Amino acid sequence: MSSDADLRNRLQPLFARYAENDAIEVIALATTDGFPVYSINQGAEHFAEDTLSAAASTLHSVSNAVTRQILGKGFKITFIEAEQGNVAFVALTLSGRDYVLVMSARESLNIASLRLLINRLAKEMG
């Protein structure tokens, strides 16, 4: 079994457990070069997994460029605040490979709670 398949098998129950929170809409893991690894979507909106992965990769690159330019360090977490919810993006390394973890939530879950959940998930994954 390939390492990607092993990773997907490990993520399925972990993502499902976090998705038990009714406010969570999407949880996704993508490579930093834009390829989807695994995702779940329990939101009303349909999304293409490869499009989300490409967007997460682009945001990872831009966030890294900005934080390196301003702070001299790589980025850790980026938020997008929308009218009806929020999306968080976390950079993480698993088994020597770089990934972007994405979690979106309805507006009923504030940014601080979203930050707590996505960071907790990232630690469990690592």
Which helices and strands occur, and which strands form pairs?
Elements: H1 3-18, E1 24-31, E2 36-41, H2 49-71, E3 77-82, E4 85-94, E5 97-106, H3 111-125
Antiparallel strand pairs: 1-2, 1-5, 3-4, 4-5
Largest sheet: 5 strands, antiparallel
Structural class: alpha+beta
- The count of β-strands is 5
- The rounded Rg comes to 14 Å
What is the terminal-to-terminal distance?
Answer: 20 Å
CATH architecture annotation name: 2-Layer Sandwich
Q: Please tell me what the overall shape is.
A: globular
What is the name of the CATH class?
Answer: Alpha Beta
Measured by DSSP, the beta-strand proportion falls in 25-35%
Query: In what order do the strands lie side by side in the largest sheet?
Result: 2-1-5-4-3
Segments where pLDDT lies below 50 for 5+ residues? none
Given the structure, what is the number of helices? Answer: 3
Helix content: 40-55%
Domain module tally: 1
Reported by name, the CATH topology is Beta-Lactamase
Looking at this structure, what is the CATH superfamily? Dynein light chain 2a, cytoplasmic
Mean pLDDT across the residues is 91
Task: Write the H/E string, N to C.
Answer: HEEHEEEH
